[in-house]
């Protein structure tokens, strides 16, 4: 049994290392000179260590403008989506009203369709409403799609909270708002935090709508900026693109490490209850 456990750990470590190879190669490429990508050998160590690619991204490209746009869109979407989803998922979990199961299934079906299917219709609608090249328009799109996932994930967690706790609070005189804000939300904090971060990551990495609905380079998000780097004048500069990709990943990586203690309970409890 012990040998099997050791063998399993070794296999998992090897798999983790294999998964890290593309990231380590991108890091090595970002720290190498312009000819690093042309080398015939696959090396994880740069031949000549330099930060020139990072300097070019910061000085010669509107990186901080893209970063600002990404932060605004991600945080605004997260707050709106989680704000609506907390109330809706609690209602779906606790109240047995007519059409409840039908609405939940309809939301699931709507979420099953690819977003690109609705892109042209939304584009025409936003053009009529003069909401193209607007952060508000993108936040509306992102929040609408993220709400469905958030409702389903948090409803599963609310289902695991014993209703006796809420009944005891009602006997003590707690109203509906106090019950949700002071009793239920602290208990459901792992699911709320994990769902919020998953919404944040989804918006942070989204580039299809960002590059379609934003009409000029100054309005791009980080993901849109990366696409711009890869497709235009720096299309062949993979070291520069790798440096930009590493910098784009760092904020989300920091957030992920900050909330990792919530990840297991927030995902598993929300995923097993229907």
UniProtKB/TrEMBL annotation:
Subcellular location: Cell membrane
Listed transmembrane segments: 63-92, 104-126, 138-158, 179-204, 238-259
Membrane topology: Multi-pass membrane protein
CDD domains for the chain: TM_PBP2
Highest taxon of source: Bacteria
Pfam entry (one): BPD_transp_1
Gene3D superfamilies: MetI-like (1.10.3720.10)
Ranges where the ABC transmembrane type-1 domain occurs: 67-259
Record keywords: Cell membrane, Membrane, Sugar transport, Transmembrane, Transmembrane helix, Transport
Membership in a protein family: Belongs to the binding-protein-dependent transport system permease family. MalFG subfamily.
Identification of the protein by name: ABC transporter permease subunit
Organism annotation: Kineothrix sedimenti
